[in-house]
Design goal:
- It is built from eleven helices and twelve strands.
- The chain has 304 residues and is of the alpha+beta class.
- A hairpin with a 4-residue loop joins β8 and β9 (207-215).
- The protein is globular.
Length: 304
């Protein structure tokens, strides 16, 4: 099961009463789950993505040796049950794991989708091979950073958050998550042994870059990268990627950059020798009130 669907993760990012899960059973065995985050705003109810969470959606345990035809029929049956059991809501928007390419059962129930992209190194078992697939500019960044900074682990929670806030402030931006939320998640991933903070400092103690990386039993995720704009040219962010991959290569098979629809970020991730993989954002407007409000004012990003 993806790390983002684990109960301890959802407790950390949603609060223990901020999420629920639909369980589908066959012959007294749970065969599928669909966790969801509940958000209330302006008198409306939203089923949406939790903060700091890449994907949710359905998780299905398939019977062994299914044919393609049987698998599609099974998916339709399971997803249709999930859709019928969704709680009452005004708007639905969930990012599905890219392993699930069949969203037709949602389409047949009048849901819509938009395609987004993540960037993944599919096999990190041979770190030297991974490094050789880096673009030349990324290799030069790594080599430059190795002369200027040193990588380390376990930057304290408050230091990570405060530095991220300051780095964004220098760029005229605001941090989009609270310290309490980050502390809950930081403590949870360390407690569960499914995440660490890696960082780079120079000899004078200046923090150049840091990242919270998390993982499940399949993939590691570049969850929250932060870069000091005063040292953007030091190559530290590239070195962090290389060091993260080295660290998690014995734990998981793939490394997921979590993607971005921002052109400059996409360009950077692509140069690490990644594969572009599409995933679905599935959504549906059910409330006439929300449709009217959204037509008058672009409120979605402010609400969620």
């Amino acid at each position: 099961m993806p790390v983002f669907s684990m109960p301890w993760w959802l407790d950390a990012v949603c609060g223990k009463r901020g999420w629920n899960v639909i369980l589908v059973e066959r012959n007294n065995e749970v065969v599928a789950s669909f966790p969801y985050y509940i958000k209330h705003n302006m008198g409306m109810r939203f089923l949406a993505m939790p903060p700091l969470t890449q994907k949710l959606g359905v998780y299905i345990k398939y019977p062994e040796n299914q044919s393609t035809m049987a698998k599609l029929s099974y998916e339709k049956d399971v997803m249709t049950e999930i859709i019928t059991r969704l709680p009452k809501h005004d708007f639905f928007r969930v990012n599905f794991d890219y392993r699930y390419a069949n969203w037709l059962p949602f389409y047949w129930q009048k849901f819509s989708q938009t395609t987004r992209y993540t960037y993944v190194i599919e096999d990190i078992s041979d770190v030297d091979d991974v490094y050789q697939n880096f673009d030349g500019s990324k290799k030069r960044n790594v080599q430059k950073a190795q002369r200027l900074v040193e990588a380390g682990f376990d930057l304290p929670c408050s230091d990570f958050y405060e530095n991220h806030r300051l780095f964004l402030q220098k760029q005229g931006k605001k941090i989009i998550y609270s310290f309490d939320l980050f502390r809950n998640l930081y403590e949870a991933v360390y407690r569960e042994g499914q995440g660490r903070v890696i960082h780079c400092r120079d000899k004078q103690g200046n923090l150049h870059a840091a990242c919270l990386v998390v993982w499940d039993n399949v993939s590691a995720f570049n969850l929250i990268p932060i870069i000091n704009p005063d040292y953007r040219d030091s190559g530290a962010s590239s070195l962090l990627v290389y060091e993260m991959i080295k660290y998690v290569s014995g734990k998981v098979k793939t490394f997921d950059f979590e993607g971005s629809m921002i052109e400059g970020v996409e360009h950077s991730y692509r140069k690490f020798g990644t594969k572009q993989i599409p995933y679905f954002r599935i959504y549906k407007e059910k409330s006439k009130r929300f449709i009217i409000l959204n037509g008058l004012k672009n409120i979605w990003d402010n609400i969620l």
